[in-house]
Amino acid sequence: MSDYYTTLGVSVNATDEEIKTAFRKLVKIYHPDVSKAPGSHEKYIEIQEAYETLSCPDKRRDYDNKLKNDKNNSDNASNRDKRAEYNQSHNNQQRSGYDSTRTHKSSYHKSENHQPYINEKGTIDTAIGFITNPLESFKNQKYNHDSGFGYYLMMVILYSAALIVINFFFIDMDFSYFLSYYSKRFLGFFIGGCIIASWLHIWVKIFGGKKNLKESFKVFFYSCTPFLLAGWTIPIFNHSIAVLLLIILAFWILILFTIGLREYHEISTINAISAVFIPILVIVLPIVRHFDLLYSLGIY
């Protein structure tokens, strides 16, 4: 029977990084959006179960103890069977298969020249990664124990610092008013973020999302990268360009949301798109209809 180590193709002494590397390589092969071959989905689930157990120190320790107990029980049963067979044979024939059975080894094998697939990067490197290669970046961050909050906090701080610089050089705004305004905006990033992530999580679960709320927050934190990286430049431009830039950044964020939810909640691309855009339409359409009604009545 295949065990979790064999499933991932690593040895029982494999490091956490080796396990992550092996897992990532297998996911690229058997992910439902990549492989449509018969049995790929079952293999993908088996790989996930193996990684979830071996990536957690407590679960891995319990699993290792279970493997040892199973092996000891198997060896004892094998020894009893061999002794009975030997006694019944009444001859000195060499038991050629006995040692190989008694010293049976599992089909573990160690992948050669492992390189860490998930690298710990700084805030700026991570942000650039989500701009240049979002799919790979989401995969890299998926199984990090970091919740993504530290990254989001640092990006908001950098965004706010950039706005302060813009205020001094491009905007004629009273500094005390500026601090009051952007302090509220700073808090709004977190309060609004919690509301948006929670709202989206409800729809993700409706469309088959398999993970908890923490993963939805993680997707939100990383998906805001385009705005936090470039949104501070909006006050520099005139109204038309500023609106265009805001629209581009908004769609960029929605695309990242879609990719992140698909990867983190392990749902199809169609379901991820639905989980992102349907809740937006649920909010936007009533607002649009409200303004249409006011306009038709001559109120707006």
TrEMBL record:
One of its GO terms (cellular component) is membrane. It is found in: Membrane. CDD domains: DnaJ (cd06257). Residues 59-85 have a biased composition (Basic and acidic residues). Keywords: Chaperone, Membrane, Transmembrane, Transmembrane helix. GO terms for biological process: ERAD pathway. It is a multi-pass membrane protein. Pfam families: DnaJ, Yip1. Residues 3-67 form the J domain. Residues 59-112 are annotated as: Disordered. One of its GO terms (molecular function) is misfolded protein binding. Residues 86-100 have a biased composition (Polar residues). SMART domains: DnaJ (SM00271). This is DnaJ domain-containing protein. It comes from Methanoplanus endosymbiosus.
